[in-house]
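Deviations from the work plan: none for this task. Representative record:
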Amino acid sequence: MKLNIPQAIRWTGDELYLLDQTKLPGEVVEEKQETIEMVWHAIKQLKVRGAPAIGVSAAFGLIVGIRDATNLPLEKFIIHIAKQAAYLDSSRPTAVNLHWSMVRMVNKAKSQSANSSAELYKALVEEAEAIDQEDKAFCLAMGEYGAPLIKEGMGVLTHCNAGSLVTSGIGTATAPMYVAHQNGVPFRVYADETRPLLQGARLTSWELQMAGVDVTLITDNMAGHLMSKGLIDLVITGTDRVAANGDVANKIGTMSVAILAHHFNIPFYVACPSSTIDFASTTGDEIEIEEREWDEVTSFGSRQTAPEGIKVCNPAFDVTPNRFVSGLITEKGIVRAPYRENLAELFDAHQSR
Amino acid sequence: MKLNIPQAIRWTGDELYLLDQTKLPGEVVEEKQETIEMVWHAIKQLKVRGAPAIGVSAAFGLIVGIRDATNLPLEKFIIHIAKQAAYLDSSRPTAVNLHWSMVRMVNKAKSQSANSSAELYKALVEEAEAIDQEDKAFCLAMGEYGAPLIKEGMGVLTHCNAGSLVTSGIGTATAPMYVAHQNGVPFRVYADETRPLLQGARLTSWELQMAGVDVTLITDNMAGHLMSKGLIDLVITGTDRVAANGDVANKIGTMSVAILAHHFNIPFYVACPSSTIDFASTTGDEIEIEEREWDEVTSFGSRQTAPEGIKVCNPAFDVTPNRFVSGLITEKGIVRAPYRENLAELFDAHQSR
């Protein structure tokens, strides 16, 4: 069965197309990235979002930014590459994968033994394609390892969007679902709408629906009720960052889902490519929680839904303690408690991004 | 300190004014009810909402519907009263207090020993005013019993709107907050926005803000996170129906809040006038959960936020098992477990509405 899933990033060999995710699900618009400035704005304005997808987009975006400069002498071309990479890197300072991708491309340029700018350009295209392929392979591996968790007839809950839209492949949390679906396993997905920005309603339910997965949209406060009614057998979410001890930082609301799952004896898994593991954070307590703008909570679209001047809390993330996590689905297999030991064993604990 | 809270229902002695709650918080519009048809539509269209407020509105609405008919002979006037009451009763068939209020008014008319239609009319105005006064007194009593739960510096979480807007008094869940506020106790309230209909954002945060209570609006999925950060010391919600064993049916999401509060050792109280106790329901399992329209979840205002054709769940209520309830704040005092015995003892278990 061929999967029909949206492609956040499409590289034709010489052109980069990005899906404008800010318009979803109302309009499906793929934009050809004519200039590096377009890519910069696409990242800045969240047209492309999610750590892996940003890293891949930036690698191809850099190619867009250097392809017309291969007539420069090699030394000047390398300086140009570094400048363009630094420019793209400035589009979203907190995106770890963006910085990592730009460092990798520039290091490649500097360490390359190319004899000409044209030759170096070709090597960098290959490097960007390698970054893209690695991301696709990581998604697929998480899918293969995670799919056996999904048994026939199960109800699977997910929170926020950790789907194909945030990667160049089949997503992180969605990867096991897509692989199980391709294997012909019948199951149901419940997608939390994920206030305030509604990634679950706008993105997750859209991409799963497109792929033909049986998906039902719910408001965040319904998940516990469905659990109590026996409709949910498994939870899989993504993550923004996992501490060395297995504490999971993810979209606000994830921790509540994990505690409710624990209460109802429902397994709670987190899809977690190794790039998301932050061995520098000993525990989740060290992960800083971003506080976002108040108007995300007080309005919807252009319509104000709360009284003028009302105080608001708007933490973007919460931290799920490791004891509520049944397992981390990584590209090297499912890691279980004790997480500190098992993560360090499976991955090089001293690696940095 | 005089409380500045919105009045859902205002009776001047001969005129009825209802606040149009569908326009809140953007517009504050009080509508003079010229005819019984206007009252019928106000109830139907949820301009007035909440069991106690509907009961009181209907009692005064009946007065509006009979005030021009006192020239009828007494016998015909009584028939007219019964007809008008049946008409008003048809505006929202599932509203328990609406039916109860109409039965009480008609019984009063039939049992009255008035010598003239004018005399009977006067007695019915007094009955409607008695229903109104009783509701106000119940709210105040719940407030007095519940207020001591709120200590200086506490963070109090509430879900949905069980405020002054659903009663003719100071609300149910909000009553302890208003009394504590009047007593000069400083505390903070967190109001869950309460998807899908956002009663917390539109109504609770508005009325608490108006009263000068320190209130912060959050999305439903933030409550657990705030609990984990030690910001919430007490939860008080309202209820739509309490079973004889203390199981609590209330707005979707309440059960999840209760389980999370239990997990974090935070007391969870339910404000519950005796009119809400359904001794005919042995446990909460017998309470039917209304499933509402799908478009409440897929759109907001006129803006669609989910893909076309997406499947949706939309249960209006959930049932919180009695073991998660620290106490029921009633007009006769706080009732604690074992609920079946203690509720039956405090109230007449055989009473019917």
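The two ends of chain B are 36 Å apart (CA to CA).
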